[in-house]
Amino acid sequence: MKKFITGLTIPVLALSLGLGATTSFASELDSPTSNNVVEQSQQITAEDIASLKEFLTSYNVDETTQDQLITKLKNGEVWDSIKQGQEPVNTVEKTTEENGVETISTFKDGSIAVTTLEPTIVEFTEKAPTTGGFSTFAVSPGTVTSGSGYKNFKKAKAYVYTGIANAHFYADFTIVQGGNDYISRVYDYKIVGIGGTASYDNLKITRKTENLNGKASAKLDFTWVAFNGATSSTCWIKLFVGKDSYSTDYSY
Prior knowledge:
The chain has helices spanning 24-28, 46-58, 63-74, and strands at 3-5, 12-16, 37-39, 90-96, 100-106, 112-116, 120-121, 135-139, 142-147, 150-161, 165-176, 182-193, 196-207, 216-226, 232-242, 245-251. It is mainly β. The protein has one domain (46-124, 142-251). The strands form three sheets. Strands 2, 3, 8, 9, 10, 11 and 12 form a seven-stranded mixed beta sheet that branches. Strands 1, 7, 13, 14, 15 and 16 form a six-stranded antiparallel beta sheet that branches. It is globular. It starts with a strand and ends with a strand. Keywords: Signal. Residues 1-26 form the signal peptide.
């Protein structure tokens, strides 16, 4: 099984805490807002093609390569960016206002994989107000409340977007300065398959509280199958919370 560690080469994968996706393609995955959604198509529609082209164009994939990738998908072939055993032929980094440093990897067939660098270390620099007990500031799409030695993250989003198989879920978790961090709950997953079927398998907290065995963790499992059934991928997204940091990981 192909596995990527966050901070290396993966499709659009991050914990969205004010580092949200840069394209309207990603925004469409959040609209309309609903709980636990699975969207899929068993044919490649004009709308699917437009969405895929928008995603590829946003990362400067030329039109000729886009057309070749669309043809490949129509033939029931999976793109190299999510194909088991494929490695990128080129990787570059760029800085964006929205996501900080992004790593963009290009594969042999011209498909791409994009990630923001992880893990993110939580800094305990905000001062709680003298009255009220805690300070609150909005972080899109989540909210962070901080007090003496802790930070609560509410509705943080873990996601992976590849263009043809896309999924995310939300989580509430707490970073305890110098202590055991923990995940309170995970919820509101969304899985979108373009040019194929995407099916939900499971979403759960796999380790609620950080301990000597490892960080707190949560996992979303789903399966993507090409529209003609020629190929499939068993997929997962993981969230890790521990050592005063959070990170994401995934495997196709």
